[in-house]
Amino acid sequence: MVRAPCCEKMGLKKGPWTPEEDLVLINYIHLHGHGNWRALPKQAGLLRCGKSCRLRWTNYLRPDIKRGNFTREEEDTIINLHETLGNKWSAIAARLPGRTDNEIKNVWHTHLKKRLKHNHGSSRQQLLDSSKDLKKQQPPVTADSPQHSSSEASTLTTSDNNSNSNSGSTMNTTETNEDVVSVSVSEIDENFWSEVLSADNSSMTADFQVVVGGTHQYFNSSLEAVNGYGSGVYDTDANMDFWYNLFTRAADLPELPEF
DNA sequence: AAGGACGACAACCGCAGATCG
DNA sequence: TCGATCTGCGGTTGTCGTCCT
Protein backbone atom coordinates (compact mmCIF):
# COMPACT_ATOMS: atom_id res chain seq x y z
CA MET A 1 0.00 0.00 0.00
CA VAL A 2 1.40 3.36 -0.99
CA ARG A 3 1.32 5.90 1.74
CA ALA A 4 -0.17 9.25 0.97
CA PRO A 5 2.25 12.12 1.19
CA CYS A 6 1.63 14.45 4.06
CA CYS A 7 3.86 16.95 5.73
CA GLU A 8 6.72 16.64 3.34
CA LYS A 9 4.86 19.00 1.09
CA MET A 10 6.90 22.11 0.73
CA GLY A 11 5.66 25.26 2.34
CA LEU A 12 3.72 23.63 5.14
CA LYS A 13 4.49 24.96 8.57
CA LYS A 14 5.62 22.75 11.43
CA GLY A 15 6.19 23.30 15.12
CA PRO A 16 4.18 25.05 17.79
CA TRP A 17 0.86 26.58 16.84
CA THR A 18 0.39 30.31 17.15
CA PRO A 19 -2.72 31.87 18.73
CA GLU A 20 -3.69 33.17 15.32
CA GLU A 21 -3.56 29.69 13.81
CA ASP A 22 -5.62 28.34 16.70
CA LEU A 23 -8.17 31.05 16.12
CA VAL A 24 -8.44 30.22 12.44
CA LEU A 25 -8.82 26.52 13.16
CA ILE A 26 -11.41 27.05 15.91
CA ASN A 27 -13.44 29.41 13.80
CA TYR A 28 -13.33 27.17 10.76
CA ILE A 29 -14.38 24.03 12.62
CA HIS A 30 -17.13 25.87 14.46
CA LEU A 31 -18.48 27.06 11.15
CA HIS A 32 -17.87 24.07 8.90
CA GLY A 33 -16.93 21.11 11.03
CA HIS A 34 -14.03 18.85 10.10
CA GLY A 35 -15.28 16.43 7.52
CA ASN A 36 -12.01 16.12 5.67
CA TRP A 37 -8.85 16.87 7.58
CA ARG A 38 -6.65 16.90 4.52
CA ALA A 39 -8.78 19.48 2.78
CA LEU A 40 -9.38 21.53 5.92
CA PRO A 41 -6.12 23.52 6.14
CA LYS A 42 -6.37 24.63 2.54
CA GLN A 43 -10.00 25.65 2.90
CA ALA A 44 -9.31 27.37 6.20
CA GLY A 45 -6.23 29.12 4.89
CA LEU A 46 -3.79 27.38 7.20
CA LEU A 47 -0.27 26.47 6.13
CA ARG A 48 -0.46 23.19 8.01
CA CYS A 49 -1.04 19.63 6.96
CA GLY A 50 -4.36 18.04 7.84
CA LYS A 51 -2.71 15.74 10.27
CA SER A 52 -1.28 18.61 12.23
CA CYS A 53 -4.69 20.30 12.30
CA ARG A 54 -6.40 17.15 13.50
CA LEU A 55 -3.85 16.65 16.24
CA ARG A 56 -4.09 20.24 17.39
CA TRP A 57 -7.87 20.04 17.49
CA THR A 58 -8.22 16.67 19.16
CA ASN A 59 -5.46 17.21 21.69
CA TYR A 60 -5.88 20.85 22.52
CA LEU A 61 -8.69 22.87 21.00
CA ARG A 62 -11.61 20.47 21.21
CA PRO A 63 -14.43 21.94 23.32
CA ASP A 64 -14.68 19.01 25.69
CA ILE A 65 -11.02 18.96 26.64
CA LYS A 66 -10.49 19.18 30.38
CA ARG A 67 -7.32 21.10 31.16
CA GLY A 68 -5.35 21.08 34.36
CA ASN A 69 -3.58 18.47 36.41
CA PHE A 70 -4.95 14.99 36.78
CA THR A 71 -6.94 14.24 39.91
CA ARG A 72 -6.06 11.44 42.26
CA GLU A 73 -9.01 9.46 40.93
CA GLU A 74 -7.90 9.96 37.35
CA GLU A 75 -4.37 8.81 38.11
CA ASP A 76 -5.71 5.77 39.93
CA THR A 77 -7.91 5.01 36.96
CA ILE A 78 -4.98 5.24 34.58
CA ILE A 79 -2.89 2.93 36.72
CA ASN A 80 -5.72 0.43 36.99
CA LEU A 81 -6.56 0.52 33.30
CA HIS A 82 -2.93 0.29 32.29
CA GLU A 83 -2.63 -2.87 34.31
CA THR A 84 -5.32 -4.51 32.20
CA LEU A 85 -5.06 -2.70 28.86
CA GLY A 86 -1.37 -1.93 28.58
CA ASN A 87 -0.35 0.96 26.34
CA LYS A 88 -3.81 1.31 24.84
CA TRP A 89 -3.89 5.03 25.45
CA SER A 90 -6.97 5.68 23.37
CA ALA A 91 -8.86 2.99 25.27
CA ILE A 92 -7.76 4.48 28.56
CA ALA A 93 -8.70 7.95 27.35
CA ALA A 94 -12.18 6.67 26.51
CA ARG A 95 -12.69 5.96 30.20
CA LEU A 96 -11.52 9.42 31.24
CA PRO A 97 -13.88 12.04 29.86
CA GLY A 98 -12.12 15.20 28.77
CA ARG A 99 -8.69 13.65 28.67
CA THR A 100 -6.81 12.85 25.48
CA ASP A 101 -4.70 9.81 24.73
CA ASN A 102 -1.71 12.06 24.18
CA GLU A 103 -2.17 13.72 27.55
CA ILE A 104 -2.56 10.39 29.33
CA LYS A 105 0.48 9.04 27.56
CA ASN A 106 2.52 12.03 28.67
CA VAL A 107 1.33 11.72 32.25
CA TRP A 108 2.17 8.06 32.26
CA HIS A 109 5.68 8.58 30.99
CA THR A 110 6.45 11.62 33.11
CA HIS A 111 4.73 10.76 36.39
CA LEU A 112 3.15 7.39 36.79
CA LYS A 113 5.75 5.15 35.19
CA LYS A 114 8.45 6.83 37.21
CA ARG A 115 6.42 6.35 40.34
CA LEU A 116 5.85 2.70 39.58
CA LYS A 117 9.57 2.18 39.18
CA HIS A 118 10.37 4.13 42.30
CA ASN A 119 7.84 2.20 44.31
CA HIS A 120 8.90 -1.19 43.00
CA GLY A 121 8.51 -3.64 45.82
CA SER A 122 5.99 -1.56 47.66
CA SER A 123 2.39 -2.51 47.93
CA ARG A 124 0.11 -1.22 45.24
CA GLN A 125 -1.82 0.84 47.74
CA GLN A 126 1.35 2.57 48.79
CA LEU A 127 1.97 3.29 45.17
CA LEU A 128 -1.43 4.83 44.73
CA ASP A 129 -1.08 6.79 47.93
CA SER A 130 2.20 8.25 46.78
CA SER A 131 0.51 9.94 43.87
CA LYS A 132 -1.29 12.22 46.27
CA ASP A 133 1.94 13.71 47.57
CA LEU A 134 3.10 14.82 44.19
CA LYS A 135 0.00 16.78 43.37
CA LYS A 136 0.61 20.34 42.36
CA GLN A 137 -1.52 23.34 43.09
CA GLN A 138 -3.54 24.28 40.07
CA PRO A 139 -6.24 26.69 39.07
CA PRO A 140 -9.77 25.39 39.01
CA VAL A 141 -11.14 23.78 35.91
CA THR A 142 -14.84 24.07 35.42
CA ALA A 143 -16.61 20.81 34.87
CA ASP A 144 -19.32 22.51 32.89
CA SER A 145 -17.64 22.54 29.54
CA PRO A 146 -19.51 25.09 27.48
CA GLN A 147 -21.92 23.77 24.93
CA HIS A 148 -20.97 26.10 22.12
CA SER A 149 -22.78 26.34 18.91
CA SER A 150 -20.87 27.54 15.90
CA SER A 151 -21.69 31.15 16.50
CA GLU A 152 -21.86 31.12 20.24
CA ALA A 153 -19.99 33.79 22.12
CA SER A 154 -17.07 33.17 24.36
CA THR A 155 -17.47 33.12 28.10
CA LEU A 156 -15.49 34.61 30.93
CA THR A 157 -15.88 33.12 34.35
CA THR A 158 -14.57 34.15 37.69
CA SER A 159 -14.45 32.32 40.95
CA ASP A 160 -15.18 35.51 42.79
CA ASN A 161 -18.87 36.23 42.84
CA ASN A 162 -18.27 39.59 44.44
CA SER A 163 -16.61 40.70 41.27
CA ASN A 164 -19.97 41.15 39.70
CA SER A 165 -21.37 43.38 42.35
CA ASN A 166 -19.59 46.47 41.09
CA SER A 167 -21.94 49.23 40.24
CA GLY A 168 -21.97 50.49 36.70
CA SER A 169 -21.06 47.16 35.24
CA THR A 170 -22.79 46.21 32.06
CA MET A 171 -21.59 42.65 32.15
CA ASN A 172 -24.54 40.34 32.07
CA THR A 173 -23.70 37.60 34.51
CA THR A 174 -25.24 34.21 34.82
CA GLU A 175 -25.00 31.89 37.76
CA THR A 176 -23.68 28.53 36.67
CA ASN A 177 -23.04 27.18 40.16
CA GLU A 178 -22.42 28.67 43.53
CA ASP A 179 -18.79 29.47 42.81
CA VAL A 180 -18.65 30.41 39.19
CA VAL A 181 -20.21 33.30 37.36
CA SER A 182 -20.20 33.29 33.58
CA VAL A 183 -20.16 36.41 31.45
CA SER A 184 -21.17 36.37 27.84
CA VAL A 185 -18.57 38.07 25.69
CA SER A 186 -21.28 39.77 23.72
CA GLU A 187 -22.13 41.68 26.87
CA ILE A 188 -18.62 42.94 27.43
CA ASP A 189 -18.22 46.65 26.95
CA GLU A 190 -15.69 49.35 27.80
CA ASN A 191 -15.93 48.40 31.46
CA PHE A 192 -14.79 44.88 30.82
CA TRP A 193 -11.11 45.16 31.61
CA SER A 194 -11.54 47.54 34.51
CA GLU A 195 -14.17 45.15 35.77
CA VAL A 196 -11.64 42.38 35.76
CA LEU A 197 -9.08 44.53 37.49
CA SER A 198 -11.45 45.86 40.12
CA ALA A 199 -12.77 42.40 40.74
CA ASP A 200 -9.23 41.25 41.19
CA ASN A 201 -8.56 44.00 43.68
CA SER A 202 -11.62 43.00 45.64
CA SER A 203 -10.26 39.65 46.58
CA MET A 204 -6.81 38.21 47.04
CA THR A 205 -8.11 34.86 45.96
CA ALA A 206 -9.73 35.97 42.74
CA ASP A 207 -8.83 33.89 39.72
CA PHE A 208 -10.09 34.69 36.27
CA GLN A 209 -10.82 32.01 33.80
CA VAL A 210 -11.49 32.76 30.18
CA VAL A 211 -13.25 29.97 28.35
CA VAL A 212 -13.40 30.02 24.59
CA GLY A 213 -14.67 27.02 22.77
CA GLY A 214 -13.94 24.93 25.81
CA THR A 215 -10.35 26.10 25.99
CA HIS A 216 -9.45 27.60 29.33
CA GLN A 217 -7.11 30.41 30.23
CA TYR A 218 -6.47 31.28 33.83
CA PHE A 219 -5.19 34.52 35.22
CA ASN A 220 -3.85 34.93 38.71
CA SER A 221 -4.31 37.97 40.87
CA SER A 222 -1.61 39.75 38.89
CA LEU A 223 -3.44 39.01 35.67
CA GLU A 224 -0.69 36.67 34.63
CA ALA A 225 -1.62 33.60 32.66
CA VAL A 226 -1.07 30.79 35.12
CA ASN A 227 -2.26 27.67 33.38
CA GLY A 228 -4.55 26.28 30.82
CA TYR A 229 -4.38 27.57 27.32
CA GLY A 230 -0.90 27.67 25.93
CA SER A 231 0.72 27.05 29.25
CA GLY A 232 4.43 27.21 28.80
CA VAL A 233 4.09 28.33 25.24
CA TYR A 234 2.87 31.89 25.23
CA ASP A 235 3.87 34.69 27.50
CA THR A 236 1.32 36.76 29.33
CA ASP A 237 1.22 39.56 26.80
CA ALA A 238 0.73 37.11 23.99
CA ASN A 239 -2.08 35.44 25.89
CA MET A 240 -3.83 38.67 26.62
CA ASP A 241 -3.41 39.78 23.05
CA PHE A 242 -4.78 36.50 21.81
CA TRP A 243 -7.86 36.48 23.97
CA TYR A 244 -8.50 40.12 23.42
CA ASN A 245 -8.14 39.53 19.71
CA LEU A 246 -10.64 36.71 19.98
CA PHE A 247 -13.05 38.88 21.91
CA THR A 248 -12.78 41.73 19.47
CA ARG A 249 -13.71 39.41 16.64
CA ALA A 250 -16.86 38.49 18.51
CA ALA A 251 -17.82 41.96 19.58
CA ASP A 252 -16.69 45.53 19.22
CA LEU A 253 -14.61 46.15 22.27
CA PRO A 254 -12.63 49.11 23.50
CA GLU A 255 -8.88 49.28 23.31
CA LEU A 256 -6.98 46.89 25.54
CA PRO A 257 -5.84 49.00 28.49
CA GLU A 258 -2.36 49.04 29.96
CA PHE A 259 -2.08 46.61 32.85
C1' DA B 1 24.89 34.98 37.43
C1' DA B 2 25.78 31.34 34.14
C1' DG B 3 25.00 27.22 32.16
C1' DG B 4 24.21 22.36 32.27
C1' DA B 5 20.78 18.73 33.64
C1' DC B 6 16.35 17.41 33.95
C1' DG B 7 11.23 17.41 33.65
C1' DA B 8 6.97 18.37 31.30
C1' DC B 9 4.34 18.46 27.42
C1' DA B 10 3.11 19.82 22.66
C1' DA B 11 3.86 18.18 18.29
C1' DC B 12 5.63 15.05 14.78
C1' DC B 13 6.45 10.48 12.57
C1' DG B 14 5.21 6.35 10.66
C1' DC B 15 2.46 2.27 10.78
C1' DA B 16 -1.95 -0.09 10.34
C1' DG B 17 -6.80 -0.45 9.95
C1' DA B 18 -10.93 1.64 7.87
C1' DT B 19 -13.24 3.57 4.16
C1' DC B 20 -14.37 4.75 -0.43
C1' DG B 21 -14.67 4.67 -5.44
C1' DT C 1 -11.85 -7.09 -5.33
C1' DC C 2 -8.33 -3.86 -5.33
C1' DG C 3 -5.87 0.22 -4.88
C1' DA C 4 -5.85 4.95 -3.17
C1' DT C 5 -6.77 7.77 0.51
C1' DC C 6 -8.11 8.98 5.17
C1' DT C 7 -7.96 8.52 10.03
C1' DG C 8 -6.48 6.78 14.48
C1' DC C 9 -2.97 5.21 17.32
C1' DG C 10 1.41 4.59 19.81
C1' DG C 11 6.18 5.79 19.94
C1' DT C 12 9.36 9.36 19.75
C1' DT C 13 11.34 13.92 19.43
C1' DG C 14 11.87 18.92 20.12
C1' DT C 15 11.38 22.81 22.84
C1' DC C 16 10.79 25.43 26.77
C1' DG C 17 10.86 26.19 31.73
C1' DT C 18 12.79 25.10 36.14
C1' DC C 19 16.15 23.38 39.17
C1' DC C 20 20.72 22.61 40.64
C1' DT C 21 25.60 23.23 40.89
UniProtKB/TrEMBL annotation:
Start-end of Low complexity biased regions: 154-176
Span list, region Disordered: 115-176
Species this protein is from: Hibiscus sabdariffa (roselle)
Compartments, as annotated in UniProt: Nucleus
Keywords annotated in UniProt: DNA-binding, Nucleus
Primary site of residence: nucleus
InterPro entries for this protein: Homeodomain-like_sf (IPR009057), Myb_dom (IPR017930), Myb_TF_plants (IPR015495), SANT/Myb (IPR001005)
Start and end residues of each HTH myb-type domain: 9-61, 62-116
Keyword hit for Transmembrane helix: no
Pfam family, one: Myb_DNA-binding
Sequence ranges of Polar residues compositional bias: 144-153
Myb-like domain mapped to chain residues: 9-61, 62-112
Protein name per UniProt: Uncharacterized protein
